[in-house]
Design brief:
Number of strands: 5
Distance between the termini: 51 Å
Structural class: alpha+beta
Helix content: 40-55%
Largest sheet: 5 strands, antiparallel
Length: 160
């Protein structure tokens, strides 16, 4: 299970709208802002957070911090569909044009058409209502707001 902390923005009709801070790069290396992921996030990012809707089975209130998660196999399947399917369609279409002897320009155009068809098909596979429910994160637990601290009186030999 891949977990992420989120803040509850609103609760309506048994569902919570949670906000997950957007990460511009991961902490796996020291690249930071020069990371390719950070560059893509700057180009296509629309704010500093992503809002998601999760089913609320804990009775949450706005302002609470929670942990949401998605099962690893689901994430792997979604990644394969989103990245591998368009790539395979591109290669297949370009290869078919090459095998038919259509020339370089036709091969490039066929590859581009295959890529677009693969992206469209990936959107169909991952974007329908059933797919959205399958790829939706689930609410795992609340994050306690305050950590209780117990202060014990000092031992007589230490208190001096």
């Amino acid at each position: 299970m891949i977990e992420q902390e989120a803040a509850v923005v609103a609760v309506v009709d048994g569902a919570a709208l949670v906000e997950v801070p957007r990460q511009s790069s991961c902490s796996a290396c020291g690249q930071g802002a020069s990371c390719g992921t950070a560059t893509v996030a700057k180009l296509f990012g629309q704010g500093n957070a992503t809002r998601l809707r999760v089913l609320d089975h804990l009775g949450l209130a706005a302002g609470e911090r929670v942990v949401i998660g998605i099962r690893s196999p689901v994430l792997v399947r979604a990644s394969l569909v989103a990245y591998l399917l368009p790539l395979l369609a591109l290669l297949g279409a370009a290869g078919a044009a090459e095998a038919a002897g259509l020339g370089d320009m036709a091969g490039a155009a066929s590859g581009l058409g295959g890529l677009l068809a693969g992206l469209w098909l990936a959107g169909l596979v991952t974007g329908g209502s059933g797919a959205r429910a399958r790829f939706r994160p689930v609410l795992l637990r609340r994050i306690p707001t305050g950590i209780p601290v117990t202060i014990h009186p000092p031992h007589p030999t230490v208190a001096g």
